[in-house]
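User: Before I run my own analysis I want an independent prediction to cross-check against. Here's the chain; please return only the structure tokens and, at the end, one sentence I can use as a sanity check.
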Amino acid sequence: MSQTAPVRRPEGRLRAEGSRAVKPRNAATLIIVRRDRKTPQVLMGKRNSGHDFMPDLWVFPGGRIDRSDFRAPFATDLTPDVAARFEAHVPKARGRALALAAVRETFEEAGLLLAKKAPVRPLAGPWREFAAHGAAPDLEALDIVARAITPPMLAKRFDTWFLMADAERLVSLDREPDCGELEEIAWVDFDDAIALPLPAVTRTMIGEAVSRMADPSRPRPFMRFGSARTKFSHL
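Assistant: Structure tokens:
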């Protein structure tokens, strides 16, 4: 059953008054959890102050889907459960492309490869770096945490799937040199992450990630942020 809650103040540029609401872009974000410390840590990155969407805030790496994500190679595929959850809401090809987008954006923004060493054909565009590293995405490592659609008053809107993976599935914990669009990245205890300057949805997803680690069977929320209320349902 759907529920509603008040909408928080939006973190982004508002659309021009009188203009139509823009269609949300398909996007995916990756929550990477590190478990080799005393307490679990999450990867966070700081956005540049020049961005008109969530400037100066700490976020998970991620971004919108690219056309190349529909044909990118992968070393392992989505688990049957994750694939089925995608297919309940989007076509099969788009679900896998969303997962690939999360992996690609994590490399582009944070310089980290969620991948396995594998022979891959030379690729053009944003996937060429994976081929250069002799690696292909490890989609089997991914789980779905939640989905959220940003409110219609924003000039940029995203329909974002929040995915999660263990840091042990990264090729390396070291950031690739000369790589990463985020100003800085850090492994942060979950309690400390909450204290960072965060978008409201990121704060919510930190709590969801903690709850999912404690109870992997918990329902996955689907949040549609509206002009006055937020609608909650489940994936």
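Sanity check: The first helix runs from residue 80 to 87.
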